[in-house]
Amino acid sequence: MEVRRVKRKVLMLGDGAVGKTSLIHKYVMDKFDDKYITTIGTKITKKVLELEHGEDRVDLTLMIWDILGQKGYTSIQTTSYKGGEGALMICDLTRKETLAGLEEYWIPEVQKVKADIPFIFVGNKADLVDQRQITNEDMEALASKYNTTYFLSSAKTGENVESMFIALGESVIAAEHTSTGGTAVAQREITDLVGVTDRIINDFCDSFGDRETAMAMIRQQFSRAGVDVKGPVKANLLVAVENLAEVEKGFKDDFKVKTELAKRKRLIEEFG
Known about the structure:
Elements: E1 3-13, H1 20-29, E2 42-53, E3 56-67, H2 74-81, E4 84-92, H3 96-113, E5 119-124, H4 136-145, E6 150-152, H5 161-175, H6 193-208, H7 211-225, H8 234-248, H9 254-271
Parallel strand pairs: 1-3, 1-4, 4-5, 5-6
Antiparallel strand pairs: 2-3
Helix pairs in contact: 2-6, 6-7, 6-8, 6-9, 7-8, 8-9
């Protein structure tokens, strides 16, 4: 049997607090943490799957991108979608609006970047039976509409966590020769401090080059400054951009650092 070794980027998409990060922790490290931690920007985790594909075995390395779940961060989200080969569309079974969010926001946004990306629906927090607002019939109807499948999962108990990643891996391998790509996406107009924060994160990552390292720096400096991406405020953002300027002194000349800092402060002042 021939062994193929491939690496593919997959996306975890859905509203904030649906459990994307917890599902990854359970799958990769077999750990569950019920503390809610907002993902700032993106986090990337690696997991290797062994799959049978026809007569071959595929050693598939999944690069799992945990995408910021707050709506409105379209620049950093759009940039993170690029190169994605598959996605898990995740809702919280105890919050009906998170299912609507998949169809109203996450699916159209990712399809602007890659029109035919394969995806699977996941209804998470299946262990909270008494709190369910989304039924099996709701999940079945949406999956049928998009000609895909769905899983009911629990990051706490591990229900279907491995199964859904295996199914995603199989979908990615099956679709790898049929991709048609998407269309270019223009930079979005800024209208509020969420848009400002989105632009700051994206521009910092672009200027740094290595997005994964840059995102780690963003998380560190935003945390130090007390920035809440769910509702950023002017004072904390001003501290955060000062922190980022200190970081940039290590890889940019002084003039460029001061220019970028001034530009970020103007944006914050304009919309704050």
